Amino acid sequence: MNPFIGNRLTIDLSSGEIHIEAQDPTFSRKFLGGRGFTSRLNYELNPKELDPLSPENVLIIAPGALSGSPAFSSARFVVGSRSPLTGIFGDANGGGFWGAYLRRAGFSSVVLRGKAEKPVYIRIEDQHVSIRDASHLWGKDTHETTDLLQAELGKEFSVAAIGPAGENLVRIAGIVVDKDHLAARCGVGAVMGSKNLKAIAVRCKQPFPIADRERFMRAVAHLRQLEVDDARLKDFSRRGTLGTLMDHHTLLGATNTMNFQYGQFSGKSKIDGEALIQHYLVKTTGCYTCPTKCDRYSAVTEGEFAGTVVGGPEYCTAVAFGSGIGNDNLAAILKGNDLADRLGMDTLDLGGVLAFSFELYQRGILTNQDTEGLELTWGNYHAALELVRRIAYREGYLGETLAYGVKGAAERIGKNSERYAVHVKGLTPAPLDARAVKVYNFRYAVSPRGGDHLRISAPGAYGLDDLPIDEAVRHLHSWESIITLPDLMGVCKFPYTYYTATTDITIEKMLNIIPELYSAATGFDVDKEELMEAAMRVNHLERAYNARLGLRAKDDILPPRFTEDPMPEGPAKGKVYDILVPIREAWYRHHGWDEEGVPTRKTLIEYGLEDVVEDLEHHGITLK
After folding, report:
1. Would you state the pLDDT for residue 47?
2. 502 — pLDDT class (breaks 50, 70, 90)
3. Where do runs of H (alpha helix) occur along 253-346?
4. Does 432 map to a domain?
């Protein structure tokens, strides 16, 4: 094993074979870690003709290059596969402690093949790996599973598990880490369930390997000096995503309200960050080595939901169970958050199917017969919470239907329901309405995962609507690489990129610290230009993945809610998304893609993806 690069762990669940090998240094330097590893291996190992829920769909897990290191906020890991929710490129990003422990155990990537004959879990303690019977865990929720495994193995183990939703192959199921952190998106929990894999428990005794510790700790000290006294980061720690984002998006008239029918919620003050602090917040917490501590830890001590204790809610979760369905009961939001964590579901896509079904009920497309007695009237949180349970267990017509996500549900319901389905390529977008912030939210149309807000997250982007399209696209394009770096390094986007550029810390300073940390840790001597090139290489690779599946410009679109329905009221009143075609054309030009959005031969070769050129041509794709 090269300690600075780590090993690759390959497990064939069908045969029970476990193989550990040193990771190729050339591969490591070219794709760096985390999302770079999962995207590359996803492309290599998952062919075009593939059922995402078959044993042939390979599930890849990779902590980042700095995950588990003494660097700030080094908790992140990525899970990649073909998505059973969207049918296209899929991955999910998680925090907590599990990914850091996996990297410290010596593994830079994990490749999971096949399907176990019966439920199993994987135990990892440094380089000692075993597959164990999980029959006693099957059917348990993620909290019960974690408690049982820690009682069996020891409290020092961090557990990544699926809940009943993953076991039942619900397409919006995620992987739950440390009880309340999710690798949530794209249905990766269903992929894990399809393999009869209930959990992966990890304990590490060895420290993160660092080639030049003195140099590394100097960079960490520099990082600490930059961030420790920053006022905005302190405010973010106090209020979290719920406080900061809901406040700002409400001012823009862009907060998802009643399935994006509106952009402001009248009950906002009852469910926002200040309401949480006043009534339910117990403490703020953080992931591995995080000084920002933006996580919420909340408890309900009275009323019908007394006894609910949950890590959260984040902004997207508060919208999913709050404004998205017209609910202003914050205790019910906390209960929904807790249910989603225990059952193992992505709250963003869960919020999408809830709001979608509520609007269909409003319009008479779903009847009481369809809902089997649930009255899906706006604000009816009791109905919403019951529907969450039904989805996880695929119970009844609506539970079974919504288990496919918004796009799949609309296809099954019919009756013009697709007109009210807010998704892109099957993935529910974030609560920020694209009509109010147009240029920035073009990202929903072109993300490789579908309606995704995390592939591009650009500070100052709310003002891009005032710029010429080419200039605005240049800004977004530059931030696409910047915001990819944390996914490769295994660090959090907030302190390293997004909040960095909106405080006294300049992004230029941070872009010099990241390569210093990477160079000191690995022994490779890299500069920011090499890292930025690697980041863009990964973006081109993910685009090629979907091009191989046949996706083209016609798929880079936004839902009718944004393109056809003017915002009815608020600061964004009258706005409709009307710049899709020109901004899409500019985006393709700036990336070196052809008019259909397929990377050109020149672009792929320039980024060292010659084998991808050969593969696409093998699949009959003529590259320009």
Report:
1. 94
2. low
3. 268-271, 273-279, 315-321, 330-343
4. no
| DSSP letter (8 states) at residue 570 | S
- Tokens 């269903």 identify what position? 190
Mean residue pLDDT of the chain comes to 94
**Bridge partners (DSSP) listed for residue 110:** 9, 61
pLDDT score recorded for residue 531: 95
Could you tell me if residue 512 is inside a domain? no
Mark which of 203, 220, 250 sits at the end of a domain. 203
DSSP secondary structure string for all residues of 391-438: HHHT-HHHHHHHTTHHHHHHHHH-TTGGGG---BTTBPPPSB-TTTST
User: Does 125 share its domain with 237?
Assistant: no
The answer on 276 and 238 residing in a single domain is yes
Number of domains in the chain: 3
Question: Rounded to whole angstroms, how far apart are CA atoms 207 and 70?
Answer: 9
Least confident of 56-65, 270-279, 296-305, 493-502: 493-502
- What is the bridge-based pairing of β-strands 175-177 and 158-161? antiparallel
DSSP string for residues in 34-57: THHHHHHHHHHHS-SS--TTSTTS
Structure tokens at 315: 């902004």
Selection from 388, 391, 361 nearest residue 376 by Cα: 361
Phi-psi bin for 387: left (phi > 0), alpha (psi -120 to 50), beta? alpha
pLDDT confidence tier of residue 68, bands split at 50, 70 and 90:
very high
Residues 78-82, mean pLDDT to the nearest whole number: 98
| pLDDT tens readout for residues 300-309 | 999 999 999 9
Q: Are both 196 and 233 inside the same structural domain? A: no
Structure tokens at 390: 């039904």
* pLDDT tens string 208-238: 999 999 999 999 988 877 665 566 677 777 7
d(C-alpha 92, C-alpha 94), whole Å: 7
Determine the Cα–Cα distance for residues 397 and 241; give it in Å rounded to an integer. 35
Q: Which residue has the higher pLDDT, 80 or 239?
A: 80
CA separation for the pair 414, 418 (Å, rounded): 7
In this structure, are 257 and 365 located in the same domain?
yes
Confidence of residue 503 (pLDDT cuts 50, 70, 90): low
- Based on the fold, state whether residues 315 and 415 are members of the same structural domain: yes
Q: How much is the pLDDT for 500? A: 58
pLDDT average, residue stretch 576-582? 97
pLDDT of residue 305: 98
What is the DSSP track for 86-148?
TSSEEEEEE-SSHHHHHHHTTEEEEEEES--SS-EEEEEETTEEEEEE-TTTTT--HHHHHHH
Q: Which two tokens stand for residue 305?
A: 């939901």
Q: Give residue 614's domain range.
A: 440-491+527-618
Q: Of 324, 263, 319, 240, which is closest to residue 492 (Cα–Cα)?
A: 240
Which strands form 17-22's sheet, in the order they lie side by side?
17-22, 7-12, 107-113, 59-63, 77-82, 89-94
Placement of tokens 């017969």 in the chain: 369
